């Protein structure tokens, strides 16, 4: 639960709230609720397979069970790994953005990636120290940040005189948001919940994994949904939509100023720092295990470059280096968009694999699986259309990235002679 909520809350509320509000206006709290519903359908596939095949492989294991050691398995698994690395750079830049709210500095655009890189280096050191420290730190940080965020949200609602009527937004300004934008906003909301997939990597460590992996996923999603709704209403009661959009990269810190003054600013930034630190540590841990598993399965190329350490720690080096590059060269909006596209495509591949090859084996309801695929497809198409109109570079780089990964995996597996035909 700590790992799942750690990844979700680190990016979901601090990095994405402003971007979701920009697309959906004063209905943005309900976009998080819609994202939770879609994430619930998505979680069904993961829970069903993990109940039958609990392991440390997580998504890599699910794909391998569905498609064998094929190009599809390697491609989809790498999309997930890349989306997680993208998420790390997203959270790292969010850390830099919030930390700078405490200082009056020039050249913030320079300091944000610098601070983000610093966070990634610290997270790398923590991960190199061993699994026990990661587990304990994740639990402590998750408890602190969830409690702190809830205190912020309730305090904001109380101070603003929040009343029941404010739960239902008025229609003013709704005409400026097309249905495509509302649906597209769901793509970012889905990204805010994708951290639950990190729990699937814990099947060989938790007690009674056939029950507890699924329980941890469900509880994490419920906790995050409640937190997201509380914070959304709290921010919405303090700031107008235009103010949220103007401060979209640090909207929680901005929302604390008119209500709590400097104390609120320090408190909110402190919680943001704790949340982002915990999120990056948990995410790096999960993706290093996943890529190590893919390497053991001989589905991805690997070279040690003289590093005399365990495979997972070698993967930590590559993961953090890639996250650092993304943190330096991409802004928050583009990072989030590319990560959402990669994740939703991978999610659809998972659902189709379970529907096509595993539904009888894991006793999954085919109607729920098809519903999950359809919901993902609608959201993805809407998001691509919006981004093509507003920032086509995101679409081009996402498509090019997916094609490049597929091509490289095809060539690698063909040369290795290990590719199997799909089941």
Describe the structure.
This protein has 423 residues and is mainly alpha-helical. The protein has a single domain (2-416), classed as Amino acid/polyamine transporter I (Up-down Bundle), CATH 1.20.1740.10. The chain is built from 15 helices and no strands. α4 packs antiparallel against α5, α4 crosses α13 (332-358) and α14 (366-390) crosses α15 (392-416). The longest helix has 46 residues, at 251-296. It is globular and about 60 Å long. It starts with a helix and ends in a 7-residue tail after the last helix. 55% of the residues are buried.
Q: Strands, helices and their partners?
A:
Elements: H1 2-12, H2 17-24, H3 28-52, H4 59-67, H5 71-99, H6 108-128, H7 131-159, H8 179-193, H9 209-238, H10 241-246, H11 251-296, H12 311-329, H13 332-358, H14 366-390, H15 392-416
Helix pairs in contact: 1-7, 1-8, 1-9, 1-11, 2-8, 3-8, 3-9, 3-13, 3-14, 4-5, 4-13, 5-6, 5-11, 5-12, 5-13, 5-15, 6-11, 6-12, 7-9, 7-11, 8-13, 8-14, 9-11, 11-12, 13-14, 13-15, 14-15
């Amino acid at each position: 639960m700590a790992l799942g909520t750690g990844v979700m809350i680190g990016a979901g509320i601090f990095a994405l709230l402003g971007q979701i509000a920009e697309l959906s206006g004063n209905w943005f709290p309900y976009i998080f609720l819609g994202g939770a519903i879609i994430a619930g359908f998505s979680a069904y596939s993961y829970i069903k397979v993990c109940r039958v095949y609990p392991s440390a492989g997580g998504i890599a294991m699910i794909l391998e069970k569905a498609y064998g050691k094929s190009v599809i398995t390697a491609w989809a698994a790498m999309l997930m790994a890349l989306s997680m690395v993208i998420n790390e750079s997203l959270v790292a830049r969010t850390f830099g953005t919030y930390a700078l709210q405490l200082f009056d500095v020039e050249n913030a655009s320079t300091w944000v990636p610098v601070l983000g890189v610093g966070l990634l280096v610290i997270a790398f050191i923590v991960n190199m120290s061993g699994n026990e420290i990661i587990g304990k730190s994740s639990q402590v940080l998750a408890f602190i940040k969830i409690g702190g965020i809830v205190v912020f949200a309730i305090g904001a609602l109380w101070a603003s005189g929040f009343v029941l009527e404010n739960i239902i937004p008025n229609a003013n300004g709704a005409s400026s948001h097309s249905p495509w934008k509302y649906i597209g906003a769901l793509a970012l909301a889905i990204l805010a919940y994708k951290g639950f997939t990190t729990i699937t990597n814990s099947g060989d460590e938790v007690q009674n994994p056939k029950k507890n992996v699924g329980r941890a996923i469900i509880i994490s999603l419920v906790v995050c949904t409640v937190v997201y709704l509380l914070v959304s209403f709290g921010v919405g009661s303090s700031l107008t939509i235009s103010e949220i959009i103007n401060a979209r990269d640090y909207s929680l810190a901005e929302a604390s100023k008119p209500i709590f003054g400097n104390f609120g600013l320090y408190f909110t930034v402190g919680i943001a720092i704790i949340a982002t630190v915990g999120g990056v540590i948990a995410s790096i841990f999960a993706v290093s295990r996943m890529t190590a598993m893919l390497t053991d399965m001989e589905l991805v190329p690997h070279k040690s470059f003289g590093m005399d350490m365990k495979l997972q720690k070698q993967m930590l080096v590559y993961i953090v280096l890639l996250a650092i590059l993304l943190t330096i060269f991409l802004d928050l909006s583009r990072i989030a968009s590319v990560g959402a596209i990669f994740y939703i495509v991978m999610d659809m591949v998972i659902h189709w694999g379970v529907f096509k090859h595993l539904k009888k084996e894991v006793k999954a309801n085919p109607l729920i699986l098809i519903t999950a695929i359809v919901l993902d497809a609608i959201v993805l198409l809407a998001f691509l259309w919006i981004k093509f109109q507003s920032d086509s570079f995101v679409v081009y780089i996402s498509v090019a990235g997916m094609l490049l990964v597929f091509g490289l995996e095809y060539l690698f597996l063909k040369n290795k002679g290990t590719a199997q035909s799909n089941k």
